[in-house]
Amino acid sequence: MNLRRFRAGTTLAALACSSLALTACNPVDYINSVTTVTGSSTLSSEWKALADRLTSGFSSEGSSTTPKPAPTAPPLATIVGDTNRDGRVTDTDLDNRDRANFEAGAIFLANLDDDAARCAYKAGTPRAELAACNDAADEVVNGDEDALDLARLQVKAAAKLTDAATATLDYDTGHARIFLLQDDGTWAPVTASTTLTAEQLRNGVTLGVEGLDVMRDRTAWDGRLTVTLTTTDNGSSTVDRVQLQQAPLRGHDHTEDLQTVLTLDDSFKDAAPFNARLEEALGDVELRRLPGMEVQWIQDGSEVFHTSMPGENGPHNMRMVMRVDQAEDGQNAMYQLRGPGIGVAEINVKPGTSDPSAGGNLEFLPPTPAHPGGRAIIGVRQNPDLIAEDHGHTHGGDAHAGHDHGTAEENSPTAEQLAFLAAQGYTDPLILDTSHLTVGHVDEMVHVLPADNAAGFKLLVADPGLGKKMLADLIADGHGDTQLVNYPNSTTTLTEATDEMMQRQHAVAIEVSDRNIATLKAETGLGEQDIIRYPAWYRMDLHDAYDATKIYPMASFNPNAVNGILRDRSTYLAPKTFGPDINGTDVFADHLKKEMAEAGYEVIFVDDYDYLHRGTGELHCGTNQFRSMTPWYTR
């Protein structure tokens, strides 16, 4: 069991929303509210520095520009990239070559996959060493597949040259590497000593560009690369330039088709029967079992991104599995996924331990007019001072590990992770309050479902207010002695689960959840008809000395149907809910099936109780997903 799932984060809270407003905001808005509420100039200045660093001057144009050179004589030779993004380098790309950004200009990729399978995973290899092996780590083009990962540039003479003419290339070797395609079909790295001859310039030269790493902090590097060609002939020199933009990584949203689900292999405790049930429910979707993993929370240790650039035969895609800021969490075996077209890397090169930085606390909305690249959803413990520390005591008979909330600065994704997201263009995350939850991840609260509405999606949300109403109605109908969880050895009745203390605690959960749902509506433009509500009800970890002024960390009594897997646009896989059995009907499951049917979805229930639910997670927490890759520059 991954005990870190039961603790709050332990690193700087770099971004949050006002504890009073509980609505989405940008970093600067939140800094101002913190200063007003706390009067803490120290806290404000610390957070404001990060907020300013992440948001100042951001636009599709990028954070900096390369100064245009003073007018010079026409270049003796030109250097051109795929400026119009049609997959070919031609004379149509000559215009606007000196400026690239997310919206326009030539693109290159961070070449972090392993096309020649050089980086075989070996158990026990240090994490830093695992991260250091990829196709960009050497000065070799590792076969034809690796050559496809290089963005092409063309150099050719633009005037009549003497045989003495030469040209050199200059670029930022700290962020990229350029290769020269030689006459024999091999590639040679371009160095400071590389000189192009007059014959090469007349015949035309093909170059290939690879990025050495993903963009991590746009204030340090915004992903733009300027390549300068200096051509000399008859004692005169001219300069020509092209600028490229490194492709950002984009998180998958659920409008992209599910292709592969990742799970632990059958040797892990309770995994075999779970995998068999999941595989059957997935139908034609591949289930890939990963050996060598030490914990089952695959979603929390990594987030799957993708990137792309135009190619001659259409978009050229690369999948990127980014290890999130989770320290040594027993998931180094994720590096076995690295191979042709798949890279594995670290978001933070010196990772700490931060539950709010887990992959389950990072989801993505589909593109909208306001956010054409999609939008990240993150969770922040906005009321950490209200959370009581737990010493392992429980209410309801299901014991699990304790929860320590930490300080107010320890309840948000790390600064490094937020800077990484901002570098990819996710500068305006939608922020939800996770203060009331033991694990505290947004995938416990919301699931995006494609839909034929104006937005293109609906939201499935966990609603303890609906849970309260349904349980009250059942008790009023004489079912108070019915078990809340219809599973062997579970004894908590509906009456016990809704006693005075539980009602008092759930009042907080209901208030926070209502505000989160209101935030989701306001920030997405969705109406109530676009919200599918699932009845949530929680168990809590309690002190010996109960304090009615505190929130006690909450986890779902029943398997949480919101934490599921979208199989396709008509099928949703939910954890089997084991809800109250009334005359042979699971009332929670029945409610979900009816609500989802109205939205056009069939629900298939998968029993994850022993494998995942006992550890305070469900289907989404215990798996990860590869989806189809939609080129970011076409959206």
From TrEMBL:
SUPFAM superfamilies: Pentein, Peptidylarginine deiminase Pad4, middle domain. PROSITE patterns: PROKAR_LIPOPROTEIN. Coiled coil: none annotated. One of its GO terms (molecular function) is protein-arginine deiminase activity. One of its GO terms (cellular component) is cytoplasm. Residues 58-67 have a biased composition (Low complexity). Residues 239-381, 414-632 form the Protein-arginine deiminase C-terminal domain. Keywords: Signal. Residues 58-94, 387-413 are annotated as: Disordered. Residues 83-94, 388-408 have a biased composition (Basic and acidic residues). InterPro entries: PAD, PAD_C, PAD_central_sf. This is Protein-arginine deiminase family protein.
